[in-house]
Amino acid sequence: MFRVSFLFIILGFTCVSCKSEDKNKVVDSKETIEALLQARYNKFLNYKVDSTAFARSYNPKTTIIKKVPSENWTSGFFAGNFWQIYMLTGNEAYKNKAKEWTAFIEKEKYNDKTHDMGFKVFCSFDNGLKVEDNQEYKDVIVHSAQTLSTRYNPHIGSIRSWDFNRDKWQFPVIIDNMMNLELLFEATKISGDSTFHKIAVNHANTTMKNHFREDHSTWHVLDYDTISGQVRGRVTHQGIHDNSAWARGQGWAINGFTTVYRYTKDKKYLNRAVKTANFFINHKDLPEDGIPYWDFSHSDIPNIPRDVSAATVVASGLVELYQYTKNEAYLNYSKKVVNSLKSSNYILPKDLNIPFILDHSFGDWSKRHEMDEPIVYGDYYFLQTLLRLKDLK
Q1: Contact 293/239 with Cβ under 8 angstroms?
Q2: Which portions of the chain are predicted below pLDDT 70?
Q3: I need a surface site. Which of 140, 167, 186, 207 has the fewest CB within 10 A?
Q4: Domain locations along the chain
């Protein structure tokens, strides 16, 4: 039986600044919400477990589900979604599926070719630890932190992000990497080894020093000189141009620095998160329903796709940021996003037999890939937002 009464409470509010059109009306029936979520969540249970087939996205034109192996940076989101749906519903079937999918990711603890250890391992194994105490899961997190630490350069003070484009970049660091620090912090809590905590703090300090503009938006990619340790260039890989404010990148920064504050209680990290959060929620081109265009600097706004994943990343981070600041604007934004996303504009049709909940996320502009379609991390941070709102109650 679905436990949705708390969602009724969360969604049953008057959305500040929302328009009165039908698409933005609050769902006012517990039964309607239950039917809506059950129709979408059940699609997950129908999806066959396969170690090489983590669902990543869905192309509505070809009607093909993009499936990836565990080494893909999005695998942990899919496994994590099962854990989070279990936490929302109490349905044991989701917990059992979560365990199956999570087991396929364990080998990634050896993968030193990527910085995405947090996305893959933490989004899966840590959600499992929220459900049950499991020493094997803790061991995987610590081993993964050891592997991730091999990508840290003490001269630069950062963890290397990518290994490709070596003809262009010496030591690239992307703002997304802030989301992998939580794994390191937790590894210290589990193991007592402060090395992981120190690496995470140093990476956050270097990012805070170099990654932000005067308006408090963030660049996507910084390239460091491996000899001098200085910044060689500030560019983008997924934004519209090098100096653009790529929407999801702002979300990684907000969420990442809020997390660093949680573990350190150093207010400089809280202030960093607050300034970028204010840039985001007060931006002149943020639509009224709270779902941003995929890049704030795009010259064709409003004739470009929205990015649901950016909205959910920010909404999740702002629920936590609200707890530290008591700024109602942050909580109101998160609730507005949830309210918008359960509308017919964004929720996927009940009869579409795919393991996704939300439409209209935006992927990788550099590859012209996954532009305006369901993507797994849009769902992941939506579910995380619901859980964090539940915890507030």
Answers
A1: no
A2: 1-36
A3: 167
A4: 5-9+23-392
Q: Are 172 and 221 in contact (CB under 8 A)?
A: yes
Indicate the pairing of strand 152-153 with strand 158-159. Answer: antiparallel
Strand (E) or helix (H) holding 328: helix 328-341
pLDDT in tens, 131-140: 999 999 999 9
CATH of domain 5-9+23-392: 1.50.10.10
| Residue written as token pair 């660049």 | 219
Give the number of other CB atoms < 10 A from CB of residue 276: 30
Give the catalytic positions in this structure.
116, 176
Residues 6+ apart with CB under 8 A from 384: 84, 312, 316
- Write down the pLDDT at residue 366: 85
Cis peptide leading into residue 355 (ω within 30°): no
- 269 neighbors 262 (Cβ within 8 angstroms): no
Residue-wise pLDDT for 317-342, tens only, equals: 999 999 999 999 999 999 999 999 98
Q: Are 84 and 387 in contact (CB under 8 A)?
A: yes
Reported residue count of the chain is: 393
pTM (2 decimals)? 0.92
User: How much is the pLDDT for 350?
Assistant: 84
40: β partners: none
Residues 6 or more apart in contact with residue 157 via CB below 8 angstroms: 202, 203, 205, 206, 229
CA distance 251 to 246: 9
